[in-house]
Design a protein that fits this description.
Structural class: alpha+beta
Order of helices and strands: EHEHHEEEHEHH
Strand order of the largest sheet: 3-4-5-6
CATH class of the largest domain: Alpha Beta
Strand content: 15-25%
Distance between the termini: 55 Å
Helix content: 25-40%
Oligomer: single chain
Shape: globular
Number of domains: 2
CATH superfamily of the largest domain: VSR Endonuclease
Radius of gyration: 26 Å
Length: about 180
């Protein structure tokens, strides 16, 4: 059976096959997905394609670095899981950047920086990302791989201070504190 969304498809049913009535067909309408149309009527079936940045974010999510996995584990288990479900991983910002972790309720972005972030080209890109985050009223915090795998208490203190900074920041867009 061939079926195209927006068109009615036909198929033989088992009852008709057992009656040896080979030319008999029944209309099959999938609930909620097929709209009856006049033959030859123009059907606009437009599916929005995912943007390149969304595809790239999904790829990054599926192929996280060891430091991103470790940091995710730290966030997930910190204070008996108080942050579970409150952050997004590999979140697109302004349609051209991806932040590693994002807390939408206070607009806090966390970037895990590996050794590649010491390269001159990457430093320029990081500066542009920081400027864009500032423009969209997002507090961005950069954490190195060494900090992720280093002293746990120092990392937690850095997270707490950045959380307070983001929480007490005045919203540039609407002029209120979160």
């Amino acid at each position: 059976m061939q079926s195209i969304k927006g068109h009615i498809s036909y198929k033989k049913t088992k009852k008709e096959n057992t009656k040896n009535n080979k030319n008999s067909k029944t209309k099959v309408i999938n609930a909620g997905s097929v709209i009856p149309r006049v033959v030859g009527e123009y059907v606009d079936i437009h599916r929005y394609k995912k943007s390149y940045i969304d595809k790239f974010a999904k790829n990054n999510l599926l192929n996280q670095t060891p430091s991103e996995r470790k940091f995710d584990s730290i966030l997930y288990n910190i204070n008996e899981g108080v942050l579970r479900g409150r952050y997004k991983k590999q979140h697109p910002i302004s349609g051209k950047w991806i932040v590693d972790f994002f807390f939408p309720e206070i607009r806090l972005a966390i970037e895990i920086d590996g050794s590649i972030h010491n390269e001159p080209d990457q430093l320029k890109k990081d500066k542009m990302k920081d400027d864009d985050c500032d423009r969209f009223d997002i507090t961005i915090v950069r954490i190195t791989n060494d900090e992720v795998f280093g002293d746990y208490n120092k990392l937690v203190e850095k997270l707490k201070s950045s959380w307070r900074l983001a929480e007490n920041r005045e919203n540039k867009i609407i002029g209120k504190i979160y």
